[in-house]
Amino acid sequence: MKSLFLSLAAMAMLVAAPVLAQEQALGEKAPMITAPLMGIDGKANTLLDLKGDNGLLVIFSCNTCPFVVGNAHKTEGWEGRYNGLAELAESLNIGMVLVNSNEAKREGDDSLPAMKNHAMEAGYTMPYVVDEGSKLANACGARTTPHVYLYNSNLELAYRGAIDDNVNRAEEVKERYLDMAMRRMAEGKKIKTTETKAVGCSIKRVQR
Q: How far apart are CA 195 and CA 129, in angstroms?
């Protein structure tokens, strides 16, 4: 199982990516909070609109990466845990949004219609929006799908990185990084693990 995870990681790293800005630092304010982001429902929302009383969970995601959607029977991918996270977020008064920043695939697998179809097939219960020009991903320094950014009630970055420690099987997870970060943040407690390594496919930016 471990070798499969490593092979998936190696596959993701093979995809060339542009040099990126430094990742957003913990404690920094969320960028672009009033910029409109078009959702699959045809409505534009801002991060400020989507924020809950106790914060906002932003997950950079897509329609095709095996780290997100899985790979036949070899790995589940993290997508199957999205709705559970949405339920937890709602119970904790934390907003949640999935952001698709794959601008280089916007005319294909990551077009708005494709996003809408994928969300329906996967049964998403949270907003799924387009990051036009990968601007939000660039501002955050997001690199992979998935890549988690959890902001507190002041929209300051409280946790970033991975959802948990096992992309292959949910029942084999030992460290639920995001779950614990959300719970402790909502309770006003110090988050014990504030950053982990995000593992996934590179965000498909337009090469300039």
A: 24
Answer whether 104's CB lies under 8 Å from 203's CB.
no
15 occurs within a structural domain: yes
Domain interval for residue 126: 2-202
State the pLDDT confidence band at 73, using cuts at 50, 70 and 90: confident
CA distance 129 to 98: 6
Amino acid 20: pLDDT: 60
Distance CA 178, CA 66 (A): 20
pLDDT in tens, 29-45: 999 999 999 999 999 99
Task: Name the residue type at position 37.
Answer: L
CATH number for the domain that contains residue 175: 3.40.30.10
| pLDDT value at 208 more than 60 | yes
